[in-house]
Q: What sequence folds into this?
């Protein structure tokens, strides 16, 4: 018996003529898609090869030459010296190695100031403009982001005025009874100044605990700390770049489900507890990304040094990127300048990979 008492009809064979055609693997459709894909990506690939890969290869070749920039490095007008430029930079005592070591020390202090400062300020700004109760959020987002699109020259000149001996910064410090330093004249490091004030280090000369050397630089110079000029440059960088990274954090905060924070509030968690145990863990990817980008940018600092200090006073703001420019275009040693650039590139790679491994282990 069948439903409604109708007799079951035998299944009729399907007509092969009405069957849908079978799609052949690797046919014209996939070939057309590949052609279309390469057509769209070809301009970008060509641009990367022409403007990135080829110049990097040329710079690597120049780092193996003794070349003054007045002839073609590919026409036999330069002497091939192999790894001699790298030996002069890393193992041979001389002015090139000394300046490079000083630049590494300065850049290391710069990274230690800029990276946490930028992360804290950008995260605080993102939390502020993400508040639903804040009126005019769009206005504040625009104001906080504005320094990121302002000319680096304008920002540098403004901060030079702010950090003058009689500038606004020293006047504000004077309100609290603090005598501000001569920001772009005093070459003493922060820790050195504190040690001298406490009587731990002599007012002049080398302390007894700083007689050894690391990479050819005395230990007391490694431990002297950042100079006032370097602190001013780091402050300028933190202020100018926080707006960009605020947007990174803001995007991450807006992706956190409101229900998660609401559930923590219902469970009795305080504002600090919700921030520490809910917001920060869910923002871990954004924090890692911002930290990675800030580290890379901090090791590549050049424009602020070039515009504000030219490496002074007494090389306390000299960085490897600026030294590469000086050695190449002022000293005419393009091979040594290229070698500095590639060693700096390797340093950035090491820091980047190390940071990625640390974040992966925590995950």
A:
């Amino acid at each position: 018996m069948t439903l409604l008492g109708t007799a079951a009809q035998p299944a009729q064979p399907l007509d092969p003529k009405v069957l849908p055609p079978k799609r052949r693997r690797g046919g014209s459709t996939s070939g057309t898609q590949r052609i279309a894909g390469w057509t769209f990506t070809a301009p970008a690939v060509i641009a990367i090869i022409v403007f990135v890969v080829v110049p990097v290869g040329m710079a690597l070749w120049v780092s193996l030459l003794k070349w003054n920039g007045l002839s073609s490095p590919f026409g036999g007008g330069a002497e091939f010296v192999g790894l001699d430029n790298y030996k002069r930079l890393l193992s041979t005592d001389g002015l090139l190695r000394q300046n490079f070591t000083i630049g590494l020390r300065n850049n290391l202090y710069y990274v230690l100031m800029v990276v946490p400062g930028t992360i804290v300020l950008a995260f605080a700004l993102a939390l502020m403009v993400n508040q639903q109760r804040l009126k005019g959020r769009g206005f504040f987002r625009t104001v906080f982001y504005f320094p990121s699109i302002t000319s680096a020259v304008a920002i540098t000149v403004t901060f030079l005025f702010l950090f003058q001996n009689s500038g606004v910064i020293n006047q504000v410090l004077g309100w609290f009874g603090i005598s501000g330093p001569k920001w772009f004249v005093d070459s003493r490091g922060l820790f050195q100044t504190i040690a001298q004030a406490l009587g731990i280090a002599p007012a002049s000369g080398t302390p007894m605990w700083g007689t050894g050397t690391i990479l050819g630089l005395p230990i007391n110079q490694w431990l002297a700390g950042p100079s006032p000029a370097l602190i001013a440059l780091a402050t300028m960088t933190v202020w100018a770049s926080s707006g960009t990274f605020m947007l990174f954090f803001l995007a991450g905060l807006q992706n956190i489900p409101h229900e998660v924070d609401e559930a923590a509030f219902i469970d009795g968690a305080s504002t600090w507890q919700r921030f520490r145990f809910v917001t920060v863990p869910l923002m871990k990817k954004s924090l890692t990304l911002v930290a990675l980008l800030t580290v890379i940018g901090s090791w590549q600092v050049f424009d602020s040094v070039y515009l504000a200090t030219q490496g002074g006073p007494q090389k306390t703001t000299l960085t490897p990127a600026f030294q590469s420019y000086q050695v190449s275009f002022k000293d005419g040693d393009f091979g040594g300048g290229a070698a500095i650039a590639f060693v700096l590139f390797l340093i950035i790679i090491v820091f980047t990979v190390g940071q990625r491994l640390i974040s992966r282990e925590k995950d």
Summary: Residues 1-8 have pLDDT under 50 and may be disordered. The longest helix spans residues 28-62. The longest strand covers residues 65-66.
